[in-house]
Write a structure and sequence with these properties.
The protein has 695 residues and is of the alpha/beta class. The protein is built from 23 helices and 21 strands. Strands 11, 12, 13, 14, 15, 16, 17, 18 and 21 form a 9-stranded mixed sheet that branches. An 8-stranded mixed sheet has the order 9-8-7-6-3-4-5-10. Strands 1-2 form a two-stranded antiparallel sheet. Bound molecules: S-adenosyl-L-homocysteine (SAH).
């Protein structure tokens, strides 16, 4: 190898100079990092603070930013330091101790009284979702806000006011930290605690010494009080604190000091300016969305989880308008065909016997057996009442997990119309019957040659049914559609379980192809020009080619519809930042109500969260603002929660990369969302012929 010594030495010298130029700053930063590490080890861990979140926050917050310039060198010493106006920044240990006592969680909303330097607020902001901090001295409030802003804390809000009154507009709080000594616990602050909320407050009749109290609000409205330690804080001065002493009075109207960078040139503000906002999902205005949908034939409406009420409610509201104003007659959901067929029977007031089924009784039951779906189904039943059969809107299932229910449905149908073929069906489908408890085991056994493959048998049944199509349709057209769909489902499901072992791609594609083909069949059945609404997860209805799924060779019903209907397919995605969701921890596990973590910093969700709106409808396909669409088009993380939610491994389990404007035509944002309310299994027992959920 040729080695150019001269060039090499030059590079070495150049690099050395470069390093020397940066050295001062690096040493400085490294010094602080080392000091911080020592502070956590010697002053905090060593004294018994164990909460990992508190320790890691103390390890992160750059305390030197919050002390006066001339005291930076001693920022990490084990003591409080003066910050001007006769006030102090608390000793690091007491901040950690109080934060630990508050038992903070990631999605908490916290109030601090006595922002002072802003340091404690920064420590809290590293741990929780939102921090509201009040400081009565205006200079301190201003400088705390500025320091928090410079340090990049966007989730802290600073108010210059008397904190003894609390911050009523933002209440209730999950935790309140009082950073100054009070004569008594102010009722105004107790009132602003959420149920289960905790307050840590130094209280004492003497302005120089207090006891640190932990107050907890119980569900019955009473408060528990625990004495934690003897402490010494500067006095809490105000209406419900110590009396204002002469010249340190800070008069004036409370005012919020902005800690966020001005949103004017940022992406969140561009989003805001180009969307329609709503306060609650029930009063979202849908008129312009309907105009944008125009005369699309298929409107695919997503959900970012299978257990969020707001997504279901907004989706139902859009669907109602599509049915009432635009002639949509098909609602096709990511649900099992036989179960949905029972709903269809109810909403269309049909006389025919529906497929044999137990409605949505398999895992995950809450996905369709919930109060929001029931409300829609009831509405549709009413809506259809006065219409001719041909004008009634039907409800269909697109999914293929109902292998055995579908087998039974085909046999039942044949028992009624063709007993001879029913006997053959029993024999052919018998191939699958040993595996009813675990169809995946069939797939494995067939694949390894340990058991005979049932492919021929199920395919034969489908062919036989179609061969007799004329004869059966003549007897009962809609029952023929139901039975043949079940037979097609059995054929696809049989294959689905066999190819599952080749990896997720093949089975995913087969499932979405099945959904697409089912949709097409139903649309054909409804005649030329029929229009359908599809309800499924964002990951099915958003265009897969705009997400990392395409790199894995996966496609979905959204992409297939786009290819088949071009602009006649309109895809609406949903997203949320935080709240609760109904989901299980494992497949087949029980439903739990889980807290949804605030979204990842690099996600689309975080961008929308930063608009500070409760709800937004953002047109993507019909958006004229090219700057916004260009910026949003840069791939980012997007969160998907299915029937399983694992917040412990959220990034790996629930985020994927996507380009939002290519994925959806419209995006609906709900900042804080709530879990669906499932219908109990008890309600399932009973008479399914009067009510789809067996109530
Ligand atoms: N948490 C601060 C320490 C602040 S010291 C830090 O980390 O730096 C207590 C602060 O409480 C002082 O700045 C004082 O001005 C403020 N304070 C006292 N009474 C108050 C009141 N009624 N409302 C708001 N702030 C108050």
């Amino acid at each position: 190898m040729h080695w150019n010594t001269e060039k090499h030495s030059f590079q070495v010298i150049f690099q050395a100079v470069n390093i020397l130029l940066q050295i001062e700053q690096v040493v400085y930063m490294a010094d602080f990092a080392r000091l911080r590490q020592r502070m956590v080890a010697e002053q905090i861990s060593a004294r018994g603070v164990r909460d990992e979140r508190v320790l890691s926050s103390m390890q992160k917050v750059q305390r030197e930013r919050f002390v006066p310039e001339e005291m930076r060198e001693i920022a990490y010493d084990d003591m409080p330091l003066p910050i001007g106006s006769g006030q102090t920044i608390s000793q690091p240990y007491i901040v950690a101790y109080m934060a630990e006592a508050l038992a903070l969680r990631g999605d908490d909303k916290v109030l601090e009284i006595g922002a002072g330097s802003g340091y404690a607020a920064a420590v809290l902001a590293e741990i929780v979702a939102e921090v509201y901090t009040i400081e009565r001295i205006s200079e301190l409030a201003e400088s705390a806000a500025a320091k928090l802003r410079e340090a990049g804390y966007e989730n802290v809000h600073v108010l210059n006011a008397d904190g003894t009154r609390g911050w009523a507009e933002q209440a209730p709080f999950d935790a309140i930290l009082v950073s100054a000594g009070a004569p008594i616990v102010p009722d105004s602050l107790k009132d602003q605690l959420a149920i289960g909320g905790r307050m840590v407050i130094p209280v004492g009749v003497n302005q120089r010494a207090q006891e640190l109290l932990l107050i907890t609000r119980r569900a019955d409205g009473k408060f528990d009080c625990e004495d934690l330690a003897d402490v010494r804080f500067v006095p809490l001065i105000g209406e419900h604190g110590w009396e204002v002493d002469g010249d340190s009075v800070e008069a004036g109207v409370p005012r919020v000091i902005q800690t966020r960078p001005s949103v004017s040139q940022t992406l969140p503000s561009l989003i805001l300016r180009n969307s329609e906002s709503f306060e609650s999902p029930d009063d979202a205005q849908l008129q312009s969305l309907l105009q944008r949908i125009g005369d699309s034939r298929v409107v695919l409406i997503g959900e970012a989880s299978h257990g969020t009420s707001e997504f279901y409610r907004i989706r139902a509201a859009i669907t109602r308008r599509l049915i009432e104003d635009k002639g949509f007659r098909i609602v096709a959901a990511e649900a099992d065909w036989p179960d949905a067929s029972r709903i269809d029977h109810y909403v269309r007031h049909r006389d025919t016997t529906p497929s044999e089924w137990v409605a949505f009784a398999r895992f995950p039951t809450w996905m369709w057996r919930n109060t929001d779906v029931r409300e829609f189904v009831d509405w549709l039943h009413e809506h259809n009442t006065s219409l001719e059969m041909a004008d009634r809107t039907g409800f269909y299932g697109l999914d293929l997990y109902s292998l055995y229910n579908s087998v039974r449905a085909v046999i039942d149908f044949l028992d009624d119309v063709d007993p001879a073929l029913a006997a053959i069906a029993r024999w052919r489908y018998g191939c699958l019957s040993p595996w009813e408890a675990d169809p995946a085991a069939y797939g494995y056994a067939a694949l390894t040659g340990a058991y005979r493959n049932c492919e021929q048998d199920v395919a034969q049944m489908l062919t036989e049914l179609y061969r007799k199509r004329q004869e059966y349709s003549h007897k009962d057209g809609s029952r023929f559609l139901d039975a043949s769909q079940n037979a097609a489902l059995v054929a696809n499901a049989e294959r689905y379980y066999r190819i599952m072992y080749y990896g997720s791609r093949a089975s995913w594609n087969l499932r979405d192809t099945h959904m697409f083909e089912t949709l097409k069949r139903v649309m054909e059945e409804h005649g030329a020009g029929s229009k359908a609404v599809v309800w499924a997860h964002n990951s099915h209805i958003g265009d897969a080619s705009a997400t990392e799924m395409s790199a894995r060779g996966e496609y979905n019903i959204g992409q297939l519809c786009r290819e088949a209907f071009a602009d006649g397919a309109y895809r609406i995605g949903f997203g949320t930042d935080h709240g609760t969701v109904a989901a299980a921890s494992d497949w087949d596990g029980p439903m739990e109500i889980k807290a949804v973590h605030p979204a990842h910093a690099q996600s689309y969700e975080r961008l929308f969260h930063r608009t500070l709106q409760s709800g937004l409808i953002l047109p993507l396909r019909h958006n004229q603002n090219l700057e916004l669409i260009g910026e949003l088009g840069q791939p980012r993380l997007e969160r998907a929660i299915g029937v399983i939610y694992r917040p412990e491994t959220e990034l790996a389990s629930h985020y994927f990369e996507a380009s939002l404007p290519r994925q959806f035509d419209e995006y609906i944002w709900v900042d804080e969302s709530t879990a669906v309310t499932p219908l109990t299994t008890g309600e399932l027992t009973g008479v399914p012929d009067t009510y789809p959920f067996g109530v």
